[in-house]
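Fold this complex.
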Amino acid sequence: MMMAVTLAAAPPVPRLRAGRSVDPQDFERIRTRMMLEFCKWDPQVGDVSTLCPFPLILPQSEWREICAAAEAMTRETLAMEDRLLGRPDLYAHLGLSRPLRRLMEHAPHEHLTPAACRVMRFDFHPTPEGWRVSEVNSDVPGGFAEASAFPALIAEHVSAASPAGDPGAQYANLLAGVATEQGGAIALIAAPGYMEDQQVIQGLARRLRERDVPTSLTGPQSLEWRGRRAFLKHEPSGARGGTPLAAIVRFYQGEWLAGLRRSVSRRHLFVGGETPVANPGCAILSESKRLPLVWEELAVACPTWKRFLPDTRDSRDVPWMSDDGWLLKTAFCNTGDSVTVRELLPDRIWWRRRLDIWSHPRHWIAQRRFSTTTVDTPAGAMFPCLGIYTIDGRACGIYGRLSSTPVVDYSAMDVAVLVERTHEENQP
Amino acid sequence: MTRGEIFEVWAPAGALWSAWAKPVLFAHLGPRTVLPQSPEIHLDWAHRADGESAVVVDLPGASGVAVGLHLAQLGYRPVPLYNACPSPDTAAVPGLTIVDVEPIMAELFGGTERLSRLTLPPTAPPAFLLDDRRRYGNTVAPAPGIFDNRSVSLPTDFPSASRLLTHGIRRVVLVQERSTHPQEDLSHTLVRWQEAGIEVLAVNLSTPGPARSIAVQKPTMYRRIWQRVLATMGLRRNPLGGFGGLLPVPSTG
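Structure:
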C-alpha cells in the first residue's frame, strides 16, 4: 500500500528588488525637500549620505504577508504586555533597571495610563528561509519622515509602484482625534541634544499644527501632574500652565525617563495618569529584547512571534563565545549599536563587550544569527531591513534601511520602500 | 529668496563639502529674520585658500558666520554645522531657548547674497562653522518652559580623515575666541584627524598672531567603545555640561 507523504513546502524566498536610481538632479531636489520641508536633519553621517537615490520595490503579495504578520505580532505583543503587568517578578529578568522596576511595580495595583494611540515597528529581514523579524521597536519607534514623505517623493519618479502607506499622517490623524476629544494642546517630549530625536517630534508637531492642534515641544521636566492630569509647568509665555494637556507624545525612551532625577515627575507617564500618552510607559515591557525569555511563563499564545523570531536565549545558556552562529545585543538596543557579532567588531571592542556580557548578563540577549538575503542595488549588494509600522494594530507603512554589512545600525541608509501596484491600480 | 534658494547658496549641489552642511537652521529661516550688525573680528591669521588647509571655526553665535563669509572671500567653502533647533514655532515669545540661534540665522540669511556673488570652485576647501556655545547655551539656565536646544558636535558631523586626505587636505586650522584648546566634543574629531596625519593648528582670536600647531589631547574616554555611544549615553560625563544629570541615548528606534 502506498502511503501519501506530505512534505512541508519550504517558505518562499522573499522577493524584493531595487529600482533604478532617480535622476541626480531630481534626487537632489528630493533631498533638499526632505531637509527643509520634512524635518530630515541628519542626511549625512560621516562620509555616508543616508538617503538612497533608488527605491526598494516589494510585490503586493509580500506586502500583504508582512502586514498580516506585523498585525498578528502586535496583538500578541499587547497580550503579553497585559499579562506582564501582573507579573512584576519578571521585570528584572526582562532587564528593566531598578528605577524602572520601581515605576512599573505599581502596575498591578493602579490603572494604566491610557494610550493616546499605540505605535510599534517590527524589523523584517528577507532570508533564504523566508522573512525573519529581529525585534520590535515598541517603546519609541522613529523614522516617520523617512517612511512617509520620502517614499512619496521617490514614488513620483517610479512607475507602477506606490508608497506602502503614510505612518506619519496616520499617527497625526489619531493624535488629532484625541486632541479634539480631550481639548487642549499636545506636548511632545524628547531628549535634548539629539537631532535624530528632535527631528521626529518637530516633524510630528508640524503635522499636528496642519490639523489645527496646538503643540508644545518640551521635555519631561516641564510636565506637572495635578491630580492625574498633565499640565505644562509654564506656558511658552512664562505664565503658569492653566489648561490640562490633551495628550503627550513621549519620544523619550522609558529607561531614561526612569533614570531622571527624582524631582522630575514621570510616574504618570507609566501608571496612574489620566492624560493619554503615546506610547504609554508600559511599552517598555515589550521593548525589552529579553521578552522571548519569558514567553512560556506568560502562557500567551504567540505563534507569529515564534514563526518569525530567530531562537533567542539568555547569553548564559548558549556557547556564544565559541559559536559565531549567535549574536548578542542589549535588552534595550534602540539603534542597533550594541549588536555584537565577533567577526564584525575590532578585537578591542569585542573584548570589552565580552566583559560587559559576563558582568551584566541580564542586560543582554543572545539571538541566532540568520543569513539576510542581499539585494542587488545600483550601489552594490546591500542588506535590507524593512521596519513595518503598526498604529493601533493596523499596518500602515514601511521604514526601509539598507546597510553594507549584515548589521543595520546608525549609519545605515534610509531607502524608500514601494509596493508594486496591482494590475487594476495601474489602469488609467 | 526661498529657504531652498538660500540653502542652495550655502550648500550648492555639486560642491565637494555641501553634503555635510546641517539643514536645521535653514529649515527654519523665515521673514522674521533680520540682519544683525556683523561683529568685528581680527582676521590677520587667515590666508588665501591653498587647497591643503581646511578651517574649523568654533566661535560664538553669528561671529562664526561672519568669519565664514570672510574665509569665503579667501577661497574657502563655508559649511554651516549649526545643529540646534531654534525656538519652536509654537513659542509665544521667540528666544526662550538655551542657545540663542536667532543671530546665527540672521547672519546666514543676511550673508546669502554676499556669498552668492562669490564664485567658489566646487573643490574649494571647507571652513566648517560651529557655535562654541552649543553645549552650554548663552541666554538662560535650563528650566521648565525654556526650550532646551543644546547640542554636541560628533565626529560623524564631519568628513573622515581619509576623505579629507583624499581631497588634498593636509592641515586644519581651529579658530576659537579665547583658547587654542578645542572643546571636548570637538576634540574627538580633531584627534582622529591628527592620528591620520592631518596637522592641527589653532588660532586664539584674543591673542593676535598666526595659527600655531597644536597637539590635541585625547579627550576623556577617547575611542573607549565608541565616542558617539559615550557622548549619547552620558555614562560618566554629561557632554552638555552640568544640567540634567545623564543625557540619554537617542530614542529613535
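Residues 102-117 of chain B form the longest helix (16 residues).
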